[in-house]
Amino acid sequence: MSAASNVEGIELLTLSHERLRAVTAGVPEGAWSAPTPCSEWTVAQVLEHARLDQQAYGAAVTGTGWPEADPFHPAGVVGADATAELDKVLSGVAGVYAELPADAQEVATPLGPLPPPVAAAAAAMDAAVHAWDIAVATGQASPLDDALAGGVRLAADRLADQLRDSFGVFAPAREVPEGAGAAESLLAFLGRDPHWTPADA
Asked: Considering the entire predicted model, what is its pTM?
């Protein structure tokens, strides 16, 4: 893997973090308990899961700062400083990845060691898809455009089956709608309904 591809991975991670920050800041008051495309999880639980996941990506590299709770059993308690808490974690993860040696061949992740661009794409995929979950659950515009979806597809193709089998994160892949763009295709591949609305909950 080249140093250039490592930089591209970090840029992708930064973009996904920006999207997750934006949709979190845009959650209307009183909408934290709304249902989401993540079965049985509210907006608050998806946010907590996403924050803890990102924390784990950083901790896997540094060996410290592991999540204080199980990301797969989020309590979904959101305080007034939810955005600040998220920003602290995302900034920390971005800093960890930015400091990786340019010639690094492997990065420790919660999913095992991965090449740096794949590791960054995996963390970016997690942030981007959960940003989409929160956005569609709260009436916001989708943060997952074709460019971002195309970037994280690197991780999806390599890791989705492992995540499905080992963690139950994703439902079985859906049939990709005819004429679907990169974002719809990614969501369907990851078991999401690209056209999900709160009425489907």
From this structure: 0.93
